[in-house]
Design a protein that fits this description.
Elements (H helix, E strand, L loop, with lengths): L3 E2 L18 H5 L21 H4 L12 E13 L4 E12 L6 E4 L4 E8 L2 E2 L2 E2 L4 E4 L8 E10 L12 E6 L5 E6 L21 E8 L10 E7 L5 E8 L9 E2 L3 E8 L5 E8 L4 H8 L2 H11 L10 E5 L4 E2 L5 E3 L12 H8 L7 E3 L6 H19 L1 H12 L16 H5 L9 H17 L1 H13 L12 E3 L1 H12 L4 H9 L5 E7 L2 E7 L10 E5 L2 E5 L5 E5 L6 E3 L10 H14 L3
Parallel strand pairs: 2-12, 17-18, 18-20, 21-22
Antiparallel strand pairs: 1-7, 2-3, 3-9, 4-8, 5-6, 5-9, 7-8, 10-11, 11-15, 12-14, 13-14, 16-17, 19-20, 23-24, 24-27, 25-26, 25-28
Length: about 575
């Protein structure tokens, strides 16, 4: 049932002082007296609706025709009560004429006022949304200010289940974080909850309890101290991913440094960590520069060098929050000699934050590339053996339950949840192996030129000559075709749009070896194959998907000895079934 939001005379003032604001709202909207501990919301509380749980998908009421020129967001979370007072001022523009302005915001928040260009208006509150009955013509924009407060949803198991994480440090001080990738930005702020809903610029004002810090996205503009000792941290970020806007609060210590890029610019480095972790924190911080050098040398310039490379320790595993990546891997050691979680989340600065998938259906562009960067970094550091070992670990997790790409507008859950037809973790591991095979097929030069064009929109990126961009699977396929000068639709259709992997069928009769590709849907799969005959390597082209070659009778033949090709393996399938049986209760 729609609930109208009454106008409030004159609206409420903005939050903070040093940037032309007052602190009146924060003081005026005092929260109720503290609740007993038993009354505090626990994991999964308060529940969210189906509407709020949806992120992406087909948009209602012309919402897809809207864009955000800017978002000015003020968050004042109260860890003791697990509540939040907030305000958002959004400059909303229309790509085409729209009859009303629809924003997404969790119904667990009570909207106190809405103004449009400074004038109070009535707004409707259908489930999980704010609808302002204001027509907006193509090319026009308005400023909408929304004051709201309430009890944010508490994550059950962040970052796989989203919401606020209200935790404590070992000495009992508040340690707070947010994640919104799965259920969307509307868990925190009134937004356009679909991938292309990024604001051109976001300015954040985050209030931290006395003695705590609030690192967040972008550049730090300044810190104000309120009369009661709380501090307000002001940040500004350029075109942040909608789910990348993050709240982090804790008694952080910070390690700072800088990196002189191979492109000539100097990039600030920051790691906010909990007290008492100095030695471990320093070792992780020491990984920042070499990891950054890898990405800049292999992919291209760090996209946000004018802001920072920032990492913050969180009470959850991790998340690619733009320029303030969440880290919760407990400084785990690994045989490859680097922290995979830090490296994976950092990879998303290129493959999620600089390049953003235009539709959740294209999300393998985030996670497939993000996952491929770990073995690629292993190869860059140590060579082919490390690359092969790390890829093998990914290969054994490919499930093939659903296609990676379905060529339609999807929600996040329709991609991630196998129960809803999603490919689940295959967007990570099958996506990674698809890239591994593609790289071999077209060669390093064409592959990395295509990747740079995907990420930056050009082959020659340099600081200042590119901006964050959206892209899709189809556009990547077109780029690869141009760089390789080949029609590779058979490749992408098989690996991305088929559920099953291609199978290489072999028969041998005396001195003849026959090879043939079998795909889930009938097509010519023109993948060449390497093989050794008594230790001598040869490459067999298969333009029609088949080949017949002569081999000496009794010769030892090994097909694809370097594991170049992602293909069906009965051994892997048997292993996966055995593992599932082992994990069942006895």
């Amino acid at each position: 049932m729609d609930t109208p939001v009454p106008p409030v005379g004159g609206g409420l003032p903005s939050l903070y002082g040093a940037f032309g604001r007052g602190i009146n709202l924060l003081l005026a909207l005092a929260l109720p007296a503290p609740l007993a501990a038993a009354q505090l919301p626990g994991k999964g509380e308060p529940p969210i609706s189906e509407q709020t749980q949806l992120s992406g998908g087909v948009r209602p009421n012309g919402q897809a025709e809207l864009s955000l020129r800017s978002a000015d967001l003020s968050f004042a979370p109260d860890p003791a009560m697990r509540r939040m007072v907030a305000r958002a001022t959004l400059v909303v523009a229309a790509r085409r004429d729209v009859a009303a302005i629809t924003l997404d915001l969790d119904s667990n928040y009570q909207v106190r006022s809405v103004t449009v260009d400074g004038r109070p208006v009535r707004a409707q509150r259908p489930d999980g949304q704010i609808v302002v009955a204001r027509a907006l013509a193509r090319g026009k924009q308005v400023s909408i200010a929304i004051a709201y407060d309430g009890t944010p949803h508490v994550a059950v198991n962040a970052p796989w289940d989203d919401g606020m994480v209200w935790s404590q440090t070992p000495d009992g001080r508040p340690w707070v974080a947010s994640t919104t990738e799965g259920y969307g930005c509307d868990l925190l702020w009134p937004c356009l909850d679909f991938p292309t809903g990024e604001p051109d610029v976001a300015t954040l004002h985050i209030t931290a309890p006395k003695g705590l810090k609030a690192p967040s996205n972008g550049r730090l503009l300044g810190v104000d101290t309120l009369p009661d000792g709380r501090t307000v941290w002001h940040w500004r970020a350029r075109q942040p991913n909608t789910y990348a806007i993050a709240i982090n609060i804790g008694p952080y210590e910070v390690i700072e440094g800088s990196y002189k890029s191979r492109f000539g610019n100097t990039i600030p480095l920051f790691y906010w960590h909990l007290p008492g972790e100095g030695a471990q924190a320093r070792k992780l911080f020491d990984e920042f520069a070499p990891t950054l050098d890898f990405f800049e040398s292999v992919i291209g310039p760090y996209p946000f060098g004018d802001e920072k490379l920032g990492v913050v320790e969180t009470p959850h595993k991790g998340m690619e929050h733009q320029t303030i990546n969440a880290y919760g891997n407990d400084y785990a050691k690994a045989p490859e000699g680097f922290d995979w979680l830090f490296q994976h989340e950092f990879s998303h600065e290129w493959f999620a934050n600089q390049l953003t998938a235009a539709n959740w259906d294209d999300y393998w562009l985030h996670e497939g590339f993000g996952s491929y960067m770990q073995p690629l970094y292993g190869q860059w550091r140590e060579g082919d053996a490390r690359y092969a070992v790390m890829l093998e670990a990914q290969r054994n997790q490919i499930a093939n339950r659903a296609p990676i790409v379905r060529d339609r507008v999807l929600t996040e859950e329709e991609v991630y949840e196998p129960s809803k037809g999603g490919a689940g973790t295959d967007i990570y591991y099958k996506g990674s192996w698809t890239l591994h095979t593609l790289r071999w097929l077209i060669g390093d030069r064409a592959f990395f030129d295509a990747v740079r064009r995907l990420v930056y929109g050009r082959r020659d990126p340099k600081p200042g000559n590119f901006t964050p961009r959206y892209n899709s699977t189809r556009e990547f396929e077109a780029i690869v075709g141009e760089e390789s000068k080949r029609d590779l639709s058979w490749f992408f259709d098989t690996y991305l749009r088929d559920r099953a992997l291609p199978e290489l069928v072999t028969t041998r009769d005396s001195d003849t070896l026959r090879l043939g590709w079998r795909t889930e849907r009938a097509r010519v799969f023109a993948m060449p194959v390497e093989l050794t005959v008594d230790g001598v390597m040869r490459r067999v082209e298969m333009p029609n998907g088949t080949a017949t070659i002569a081999v000496p009778a009794g010769a030892h033949v090994v097909i694809d000895p370097a594991a170049r090709i992602l293909r069906r393996s009965v051994a892997v399938e048997d292993y996966q079934q055995w593992r599932q049986q082992q994990q069942k209760p006895r």
